[in-house]
Design brief:
The protein is of the alpha+beta class. Helix content is about 25%, strand content about 15%.
């Protein structure tokens, strides 16, 4: 082929991509794919806020509002009611106790068991019963029998019954086995926190409010327990006449000056002394106001408490009490056949047998053995 100087060829051959350029493109594509995979993995592993049913959400925006997260449990001005504190998955708040799941036969088995007999002979425990316990409480025990004696001794030995979500069955249980005459009244209004001072014309007993019933405290999203200053009435709330309560009862809320004055939350004292007429006899019930006279004669009173919370206080099972809290419904459920037949029942009961008496007991105030025991 003869090429003439300055001549232009008819057509240039198409340029070819070098092999090195193709390798570079493949490497870049692989790096991009790995980077995308890493981004997806990090997004999947990032911590997400877990919400329970009823937790605050943005108004239809579909995004969680972290700004308003610390307002759970405060008063809703629009509704005029106090919302229950929300359990955050981060562990800021103790989970609310589940409703009662043990059957009535399980409660009967628990109150007639050796486990409860041991508990009634020791001091300084709080036996917690969740909402729904009322109709499960045993009402057929003989008043002069050994099982009722254990129930009285449990409270008389400076222990505490805590009935959360208490109802008319709870009132009947207290009246039958502790000799009270408490009367239920309709819930016709809201209730205000009881002040620890006498108010002219107020039939409620002046008292000091236990630490567990103090005003609610929150720091950020952390709920430290306590109750609001006012309670709005609810459909499941139960109230009693303050004039029907035993002497020196602690009134936490009431609706004075309404007549009859009702309270959905109170603490009744139960006191007893050793039989002064017979050595080793059955302990005798003593009214709190008569304890000074009994003590002056050499028979000091031993008193315990019965907490009545006439609505579902979601935080009542938190560690806000002066003594170790034991869930009575869980102990009762340990006697249920639902735990795998008799063999499973025996193993479960055996594992829980020493649970109420094994924990280290909390320090009890010196004046907690007499009639003026307070928190």
């Amino acid at each position: 082929m003869v090429r003439v100087y300055g001549a232009v060829p008819e057509a240039l051959p198409a340029p070819r991509t070098p092999a090195s350029s193709r390798r570079t493109a493949l490497i870049l594509a692989a790096v991009a794919g790995l980077a995308l995979t890493a981004v997806i993995a990090l997004a999947a592993l990032a911590p997400h806020r877990v919400e329970l049913e009823g937790e605050k959400r943005d108004n239809g925006s579909g995004a969680n509002s972290m700004i308003n997260a610390d307002t759970d449990g405060l008063t809703n001005a629009a509704e005029g009611q106090v919302k229950a504190p929300v359990w955050h998955a981060q562990g800021a708040t103790t989970p609310p106790a589940p409703p009662a799941r043990a059957l009535a036969i399980d409660y009967l088995s628990f109150f007639t068991s050796d486990m409860f007999a041991e508990m009634s002979d020791t001091c300084c425990k709080t036996l917690f019963f969740p909402p729904g316990h009322g109709e499960r409480l045993p009402m057929e025990l003989e008043l002069d029998g050994p099982y009722v004696l254990r129930i009285r001794n449990f409270v008389g030995n400076r222990n505490t019954f805590l009935f959360n979500g208490a109802d008319s069955y709870t009132i009947a249980f207290m009246n039958r086995y502790f000799g009270f005459h408490i009367k239920q009244v309709p819930v016709v209004s809201g209730y205000k926190r009881r002040e620890a001072e006498m108010v002219l014309g107020d039939p409620s007993t002046a008292s000091s409010i236990p630490e567990a019933y103090a005003l609610e405290r929150k720091v950020g999203a952390t709920y430290f327990g306590g109750l609001p200053n006012k309670l709005a009435p609810t459909e499941d709330m139960t109230a009693v006449d303050t004039l029907s309560l035993p002497g020196a009862s602690i009134i936490v809320y009431n609706n004075w000056p309404r007549v009859p004055t009702g309270t959905p939350c109170f603490i009744a004292r139960y006191c007893q002394i050793q039989d002064p007429y017979k050595e080793g006899g059955v302990p005798l019930k003593v009214e709190v106001i008569e304890c000074p006279a009994a003590e002056a004669r050499g028979y000091p009173c031993s008193c315990g408490f019965i907490n009545f919370v006439g609505w579902n206080w979601l935080a009542s099972n938190a560690n806000v009490w002066d003594s170790s809290v034991v869930n009575g419904d869980d102990l009762s459920a340990s006697f249920s056949l639902n735990f795998g037949g008799m063999e499973g029942k025996a193993k479960k009961a055996q594992s829980l047998r020493l649970a109420p008496v094994s924990p280290i007991q909390t320090v009890v105030q010196e004046d907690c053995s007499g009639f003026n025991c307070h928190y």
